[in-house]
Amino acid sequence: MSIQNAISSPQAGKHAIVHGGSMAGLIVAGVLSRHFERVTLVERDRFEEGPQPRKGIPQAPHVHVLLLRGLGILCNTFPGFREELRAAGSQSLDMSGDYAWFMAGIWRSRKPCGIRVQAQSRPLLEWTVRKCLLARSNVRVLDGREVIGYTASADNARITGVQIQAPGGGQEETLQGELVVDASGRGSRLPQWLEALGYPRVEETRIHVDVGYGSRFYRRPPGFEPGWRGLILAPDLPKMTRFGTLIPIEDDRWLASMGSWLGNHPPTDDAGFLEFARGLGHPHMYEALRNAEPLGPISLYRFSHNQRRYYERMPRFPEGLAVIGDAFCSFNPMYGQGMTTGALQAEALGECLRQGLAGVSQHYRQRVGKLLEVPWMLATSADLRLPSVEGKRPPAFGLMNWYGDRFQQLAGYDDETLRLFVEVMNMVQSPAAMFSPRTVLKVLTSRPSADVLSRRPEPMAAQAQRTQTA
Ligand SMILES: Cc1cc2nc3c(=O)[nH]c(=O)nc-3n(C[C@H](O)[C@H](O)[C@H](O)COP(=O)(O)OP(=O)(O)OC[C@H]3O[C@@H](n4cnc5c(N)ncnc54)[C@H](O)[C@@H]3O)c2cc1C
């Protein structure tokens, strides 16, 4: 692993401390290793060797899509990252050629669009990032240690370090650093810690969705060739709230996740899980799962609400402190934005540090406030389509939804629009591109043909029967 970049930038300071060693913490530690002499990453869990689940990331057994923008930032931060990931068994998939993808009432064209994404388990993704980080000689990891509070200057205007302890008690220790980054996830205790230092309570918005994910690993059935490698059954909000996705991952396994909004969650017993798959509106998930060998139990994750903390609006905020990832803003995972938004924040912090350490906390929180607008709007405006989800609808909400539906439908049969949609979804293109005059004209004047509306990939069993009788 190259550390070329670690020594190519002028140094902003001697020591930075990150607490929380999940995706946001790992990426930002990588970025900071280019700007500080030393970086210490403090993680409450013990890190095991290899891609293992752990207590601090209960979301690990569920499908995690790494958007292209996030992958790009990881590759910039850790040169050779993509190759490491692929060598570890991550699968490369064309977004249209390899996926059977139902969305907005249409099965998308299977013509390859040339945009490829990586599919792997979340533990493999995190392990690969951690390996890349550990290869940096100026990074130290303190696992099995929890941050229990901050130290501050006499006037509390600057955070000067962290107090750490083994979870459950033991000897307290203090680490001093010029920058402390909170990457401790949506349960971050920063609002309380700042209040204790005399700062006002950070404003917070919650949008309750009660989404439940049920997921299971499977052995990929040998000999089954359904003609697709991955499956996406997107919900048709507000009419249909169930979703399902199946991806091929390392070690010749599948990972299937299904779920729904508003408490209609998948059961965790075998029969109930399959029955949920049957209720997805298409037989593909059901046929696939009923033919595959389960490799372990069904995991359920309940996500109660989107949560945005407006640190950028606080009238006062200490120097020497930054917040990143789910600790700043946590979205309904359905839209696959969490890890990439964390990566974008890490990139933004790196850019702020190019000007040096002075004022970095203030510049960074303002940048993140702006950066969060689009992903927050995309996630919450989809959730707010459900009438029982409480929250303020933006002006022209109905019109925007109508346009969005028509745009997504067009992406089902127009190659150029499909590419644009995939780019916007992967955060490599601004949503503003959906409103170019050429696209608006197409959206307003095109209709899907009868052929498009009746297009269907075959469910697995039909293909399998043919394979067996051939
Ligand atoms: C079911 C589900 C599916 C998801 N799917 C996707 C997806 O497809 N794509 C996507 O991009 N995102 C997805 N996400 C979101 C994604 O998991 C998070 O956005 C991502 O993990 C980044 O979070 P984070 O690093 O900020 O925090 P977390 O992942 O929550 O990690 C916080 C870390 O901090 C540690 N910690 C906590 N407190 C302390 C402390 N005091 N001291 C030291 N360490 C501490 C924890 O042990 C943990 O390791 C999904 C989430 C869920 C729940």
UniProtKB/TrEMBL annotation:
Stored InterPro entries: FAD/NAD-bd_sf
Domain of life where this protein originates: Bacteria
Region (Disordered): 451-470
Protein name, as recorded: Secreted protein
Lineage: Bacteria, Pseudomonadati, Myxococcota, Myxococcia, Myxococcales
